[in-house]
Amino acid sequence: MSKPLGARPLVWGLTFLVLAFLLAHLAWERHDGLAFPDRHIPLFLKRAAWCLEWFGDMQGRFGKDPGTLPPPLLKLEPRAPDYPVPACFDARASGRRGELIPPTLDYPPLVFLIAAAFMAVFGPEVAVARWSQMVFVAGLIGLMGRVGWKVAGSRGAVLLALGVATAVWTAHFTRLFCMAPAQMFILALMLNLILDSEGLTRQRTCVALGLAFGVGMLIKYSILALGLPAVLLAASPRLFQSARSRWALLALLLLLAGVVAMTLHGIRWSQADPTERDFLPLVLGAQALFLGACWLAWVMGRRGAPGSGVGLLTVASVAGAVCSAWYFSRFQIWKTLIPIQTEFAPTLSQHTGSSNIPLLVWAAHLRVTETFYWGGILWLALGTILLRLWGREFPRVDLLLKLSLVTVLVQYLLLWPDARYQAPMLPVLVILAFLWAARWRTSFVVCVGFMLVLGVFQVAGWAPAVRQAAEVLGIRLVAFSQVLPDSSPPADPGSFRSSLRVITIAEPPSRTPPLFEVLSPGSRVGYLKVGMLPWEEQEPLFFRAWMSLKQDVVFLDPEEPIPFADLDEVVAVSRRRLAPEETAALGLEAEPLCIPVLFGRNLFYFHLFPIRKSEGAGPGNPPAPSRS
């Protein structure tokens, strides 16, 4: 194990690594126009836009000028009957403006609120929403450095921080817009706190761990499967060591029984009467239950050594107090979410009855995991074996190995082999793959050099200079979206990388004109849909909603004449490029600016027609469209 490095040099090194990652992302943003290689991203961006409007609604509630509020984006998409707003949080029910909870429907709100805060300060741009992910990436790099430093000194800090900074998944999912970077951050934070808690016996650390768990549940509910196994494993050695710990465990079981009973009651209530939306009694009841458990854990922790049982009760009660209000106000989502999750869980799915289906699912998991780093599965296999041999000498290394293996195993058992679902466990994959190299100086130097060189290809593989270097070396760079289109499970899970000369790289920039920046701010835009579009109720609606942040959008009927006198620009969206005769039939110019935008596996074509206002044009005199 390497000699511990002082705190100041380590902080400076991690800061430099964070800045390097930020600069790489900034360079990528300068060349990116607009593309969504994962079709879920527009759904997430819409929720960020809704939260931006929610901020404005809150200003309206407190008497500020309603004229400065963002446009009513929520009116563009009617609420589904499965996700009505609880009446106790619906200020419109009393004739006032706005909802009291963020309107993120079936997703927890924290990531979208942070993105909305960034957009409120820096402007409603897709790039700004993506930049909000840098908060979590910076924290992730720093926390992984701390994990490595606590377990293996300065070498471990460098290896783990550099590992997550150069991983394909970190750069790729930051360039999208999703919850994965935030989940990576929470998992790294929980690993730090678990190592500090000494088997969940330090009361203050357990409070911090509970806060991290609760905040993670406000990022995404899958944090439960991501963090809970590690917490239980850390507590298990001393769980029954003392009478106080056993009594605390009994109190925890009673707490869980009460939560389960209230949850089942809320689900039955929402199913019995879909119009019933007032869950305030259950929200207050859950808060009282968790706060009471917090008080009990605090009292038991003051009387001598608390034990792991008291620590586990502390973590559960604090986490519940943080996140229960949101979950208990959203019972409508559980009647659909629980069946969906059990349907797609490999160990619970009814589709895995055939003897070969589970094997295919596990093969798909391995195929997805292979993409987190070049030679990912080989690094994991080698690193796990060497880390196990090292862990026999150092208890903390052994504990970290067990925490990582349990986390990966639970993800494989409970989650579908999708890259977005696996990406949050990146911290433990990096630990398993690279921490072993901290044991010897030679292995450390070789591994750091390997990660620096490979990181350039994986993070900046889109740059012309890097591509030229790859051609000289005979290396083929393949975008992540080509390996796993739409982040979905591979079509052929049994086939792994055919050649070690192929490197998967984070998503390259689209290099198309930025659609939302091409439109003039404050202009009146006509939005025209031409032909049938896939995912008709999601993608086109996202564009209309996002344009409404900066333009006055009018929805045009393809069967009606275009009111040119009332418009400054027209945007026509279709599955293919419109022929000149098609645009002429609409009364538009023959050669518009055409911007292709990728949505999952589909391409949409956005045709931009600026309208030239002729002198004296009026409702009875439509102006001639401009021609460039």
Could you describe the 3D structure shown?
- The protein is an alpha/beta fold and 628 residues long.
- Among the domains are: 40-131, no CATH class; 515-610, D-Maltodextrin-Binding Protein, domain 2 (3-Layer(aba) Sandwich), CATH 3.40.190.
- The protein contains 24 helices and 7 strands.
- The strands form 2 sheets. It has a 5-stranded mixed beta sheet, with helices on one face. A two-stranded parallel ribbon has the order 1-2.
- Helix 5 runs antiparallel to helix 6 (168-175).
- The N and C termini lie far apart (67 Å).
In short:
The protein has helices at 7-31, 41-61, 110-122, 126-131, 134-166, 168-175, 180-196, 203-217, 223-235, 243-272, 280-302, 307-328, 334-344, 357-369, 376-391, 395-414, 419-422, 426-434, 441-460, 464-473, 480-483, 515-518, 539-547, 580-585, and strands spanning 476-479, 502-505, 524-529, 552-556, 569-574, 593-599, 602-610. With 628 residues, the protein is α/β, with parallel strands linked by helices.
Please tag this protein with its features.
628 residues; alpha/beta; D-Maltodextrin-Binding Protein, domain 2; five-stranded mixed sheet; two-stranded parallel sheet; 7 strands; 56% helix; 7% strand; globular; disordered C terminus
